[in-house]
Amino acid sequence: MESSFKMDCCRHKLLGNKLCILEVASDKIIITNISDLPHKRNELDLNYNLFIDFKVKNKQLQAIGLTTNKHHWYYADNQNLINLKQILGARVVFKGVNTLYNPLQQIGQGTFSNVYLLQSKIKSLEYFACKCLDKAQVDAQIGRQGLFEEIQAMISLKHQNIAELLEVFEGDVSYYMVMQYYDLEFTDVLKELNHEDIPIIFKQLVAAVNFMHEKGYMHRDLKPENIMFSDSIYQLKLIDFGLTTKDSGKSKCGTPGYIAPEILNLDTRINEYNEKCDIFSLGVIFYKMLTQNDLFQGSNHDEVLENNAKCNINLDLLTANPKIPKQALNLLTLMLQIDPTQRIDTNQILQHKYFAAEEITSNNTLNSANQLSRKHSSVIKILSPLQKKNFLFSSPFSFHDDECIEKEASMQPIPVMIMKGGSVQDIVKSKNSGKNRKLNKEVTKKYQTTDFEDALAEMNQNNYRPPKPSQLQEMYNE
């Protein structure tokens, strides 16, 4: 069996260390004891029933913990252990997320999860986003097996425009999905777009969705909040695959304002939907890129949902604007067909004449990576209280723009809806349209975990903004 990784390690014993060789094959970890004769060999299957933990000391990995007949620590040099951890990635389950990462701040919230900003305890200049899922919620919705089937799906979706899942941890009350942290949000970039930028960005988004469709998956929650950038508009990343499925479409779900009409008006007894639902959502996003306006509007989310279901599409803003190419209007019309059988698919979008209308080069856009990163990092208070306490950096920033932060704090997240049944009108009537939807502490607390609680208790006493990866090297040099 050919191995992709091999390292020397040892087990500490009272009567002397046992020298071992640890190898990673395609589907196994193989540990060979070379201190004894005959050599003893243990094989562990690489799957989600294999739990692995690490020892950390002085910001370096010391040992990896594996269970054969019982739990053993295998000691090796830091770099080999880092390489091993990266190779294993999301193919196994790690234990002890707080051994390897410091939680800095909650930066997002989904229907059944929270998203935290993490700082590596091994490399203090590395930051990650961590989706934290409550185990009780997971067990009630899909079960552990269902969750790890979704994780396996994410691993198979490796594409330059899709955020990569790096590691999976399981704690006492939560699961943790560790991903790369991207600081540049589509909603920020949207404000700065010119018409030369739009095809650059939109083509990347369609390419990501096209890859998913080729693999047999539907995203089902495409919206601006699920689009990020790594440094510049040339590095789009599609995120949040909580509603992604390979099954036939028989459940009502999505975000009001972006849901395809066949989902909202679905009668699960007689029909179902397919990947064309993502095309409609792409069309709504494209409309917003072209006009800076929402296609389906309303004074609250219930009104947006109702207008979304009625699907009365008005393209007057496009036809009245001479700067918008006719090819863009044609493409949008093909994506927003109410009948999904008449809707264009992702391959046809990528071949549409709209993308051939202009040569896309790095010289025809105003939004360079530096300009975007600096603009949206200028109001950030870089350091968390934990970083200051441990003297990790000496921050060049001592204040932030209070007015900007207050405006951000007043913005309410758009809720993802998973509808159990009934018409849109029934759903709307059952809700209080005037209700304040701002998340309160109790809702947030519901999803906090024992692994992060102690550190976050100190964080929550202070108002600060998460650090930006684009500034970390500059901070370090300062």
UniProtKB/TrEMBL annotation:
UniProt: ATP binding residues: 131
Ranges of residues in domain Protein kinase: 101-355
GO molecular function, one term: ATP binding
Keyword Zinc attributed: no
Keywords in alphabetical order: ATP-binding, Kinase, Nucleotide-binding, Serine/threonine-protein kinase, Transferase
InterPro entries for the chain: Prot_kinase_dom, Protein_kinase_ATP_BS, Ser/Thr_kinase_AS
Gene Ontology CC terms, in alphabetical order: cytoplasm; nucleus
GO BP terms: mitotic DNA damage checkpoint signaling
Cited PROSITE patterns: PROTEIN_KINASE_ATP, PROTEIN_KINASE_DOM, PROTEIN_KINASE_ST
SMART domains: S_TKc
Pfam families tied to this protein: Pkinase (PF00069)
Subunit structure: Monomer.
Similarity comment text for this entry: Belongs to the protein kinase superfamily.
Protein name per Swiss-Prot or TrEMBL: Protein kinase domain-containing protein
